[in-house]
Amino acid sequence: MRLTAELAKLDLITHLDRGALATYCGAYALWAEAMVQIQKYGSMVKSPTGYPMQSPYLSIANRQAELMMRVASEFGFTPASRSRISVPPPDQLPLLDLTDEYEGEPEDGG
Q: Which of 13, 71, 77, 95 is 20 to 30 A off residue 3, Cα-Cα?
């Protein structure tokens, strides 16, 4: 995934972040699907009785956009949140290197 590669380059993601990142990805997928439907049918549709009403996809898109923005600010995906994140210098190694955990064969002893 493109996001994880960028976050890993900046040393801003660990395996502990999987849930939050999965939440962002799920919200993005639902938002994108809702936006396709809004573009196809419009933001206003006719109710079963013939009256104009807001498309149900619009509320889905709005809710997922809110969720995406909340998670995005946690990861520094927005300009404002990025300005608050301090990235360690490239020559400074992280205290724990978790990059190859869960990749390949399980480690012995546990």
A: 95
